[in-house]
Amino acid sequence: MTAKPVAVVVGGGISGALSAKALADRGFHVRLFEKYPHPSTVFSPTDISYNISLGPRGQDALRKLGVSKIKKGVFTKYIARHVKQSVKVLQRARPDLSVASHNLAFSILRNAEDAGVEMNFEHTLKDVDFDNKVAEFSKIYNESMKVKYDLLVAADGSKSTVRQKLVEDSSIELKVHVVEDAMEYQCVILPHWRDIICHQVLYTTKLKSVPPETVHTWADKASNFLCLSSPFGDKTLMTMICPVGTLDGLKKKENFGLFLSILLEDVTEQARAEISRQLARGTPSTGSTCVWPSSIGFPAHQVLLMGDAAHGMFSSLGQSCNAALESVLCLANATDACEESVGTKKYIEQIVSIYVDLRKDDAIAAVDLTYNGFGGTNNRIIVHGS
Ligand SMILES: Cc1cc2nc3c(=O)[nH]c(=O)nc-3n(C[C@H](O)[C@H](O)[C@H](O)COP(=O)(O)OP(=O)(O)OC[C@H]3O[C@@H](n4cnc5c(N)ncnc54)[C@H](O)[C@@H]3O)c2cc1C
Fold first, then answer.
1. Ligand 1 pocket, 45 CB below 6 A?
2. 157 ligand 1 Cβ < 6 A
3. 374 in ligand 1 pocket by Cβ < 6 Å?
4. What is the pLDDT of residue 16?
5. Given a cut of 70, is residue 374 above it in pLDDT?
6. Which residues form the FAD-binding domain (predicted)?
7. What share of the chain in percent tops pLDDT 70?
8. 318 close to ligand 1 (CB < 6 Angstrom)
């Protein structure tokens, strides 16, 4: 019997974890390397997390790849827009799965572990020798570690190191255009929204009460400030999204409380004080990145780009995680299509080349679509490319 092909997955985020599971389920020996510790060891979820809303496409990919139970995931039914002067709009929404990003990654990682994936946390990719198919990782206080692969999956996010190494390699044709969103975000955890929204709610529907599975939004157009409150188990995960520098600027001002009281006029004073306290304790993270690579896979080198590394998108339209999960489904379908060549020299090359055919055009079209999302094109910073 021939030995199992070795897939090295760089990145233990959502797309890395799901790729690892899909490949392990299809006969690969999978070694996953993630630079941070396992998400279950992180003390405060707001240090690393934000809310993800998964639409039917992302949910479908998870289901088809055998991931069913998502920790603290809630299916949302309504969106409530809180507008000043107490006019509120409650709209029926499609049943998206609302989940904190670290809980989604945690749930998929657990499935990958069950599928037999070898997990290596706190390992950072440093270099790749594409000719000899060797990836080099470093671990704090340890010698660096060289790992041979048959397939390298770069799921290391929109600022992918693997992608950068591909660009730098003169024997590989890859150009990448990157645009950063000049938005930032910061999250706080609050009691359930039923306990923090105080005024009589005047929703423009005939419903007598607001269902628990509701996402609430507050927006201030003048400062481009959006506040999203999503169900988070029996609590609320509130995400503030605004142009870079806004939050730190506001936090320094004495009238930050006043700003919050105008924006969140129907939120209790106690909850607003808690929001200020949590915001002051943490720091905002910068938003997301649009990535347009000239290719998402390199058959001869047996390397492919996955998720945000392949097609980073602005987070405002809530599409990139859905697209990332769909890309993993394409990888699984490409692997299934090559079943007859398992064990032959062409097996991995064929998988990469079918993956590119199945995915490239749709993924890049989705990046184009999100480019004009929340914040407007005036808030974009071109990093490189033209
Ligand atoms: C505020 C915000 C809200 C969002 N909301 C939505 C939403 O509602 N719906 C939606 O579809 N999408 C949303 N997204 C986007 C979604 O989070 C991403 O598309 C998704 O996380 C991409 O997953 P990924 O695994 O490809 O990349 P990532 O989640 O970035 O994971 C990459 C992983 O690689 C690791 N890594 C990086 N470099 C190295 C290295 N050198 N060595 C080893 N490991 C490395 C990182 O630590 C990380 O764990 C949102 C994003 C943000 C920022």
1. no
2. yes
3. no
4. 98
5. no
6. 8-167
7. 89
8. yes
ipTM of this predicted structure: 0.97
User: What confidence tens digit (pLDDT) does each residue in 60-72 have?
Assistant: 999 999 998 888 8
What is the pLDDT averaged over residues 221-241?
Answer: 86
Residue nearest atom 26 of ligand 1, based on CA coordinates:
307
Higher pLDDT, 342 or 102: 342
Domains of the chain: 6-35+122-176+292-381 (3.50.50.60), 52-97+182-287 (3.30.9.30)
Residue 237 pLDDT greater than 50, yes or no: yes
**Residues 124-151: what's their mean pLDDT?**
94
pLDDT in the model for residue 143: 82
CA 216 – ligand 1 centroid, Å: 23
101: Cβ below 6 Å to ligand 1?
A: yes
| Number of residues in the chain | 386
- The preferred substitution site among 21, 308, 328 for testing ligand 1, maximizing ligand atoms within 8 Å of CB, is 308
Kindly report the protein residue whose alpha carbon is nearest to atom 3 of ligand 1: 315
CB of 156 closer than 6 A to ligand 1? yes
User: Percent of the chain beyond pLDDT 90?
Assistant: 52
> Which residue is closest in CA terms to ligand 1's atom 49?
13
pLDDT at 84: 67
pLDDT tens digits, one per residue of 307-325: 999 999 987 677 899 999 9
Confidence of residue 33 (pLDDT cuts 50, 70, 90): very high
Q: In angstroms, what is the span from residue 154 Cα to ligand 1's centroid? A: 12
Ligand 1 atom with the smallest distance to the CA of 36 is 47
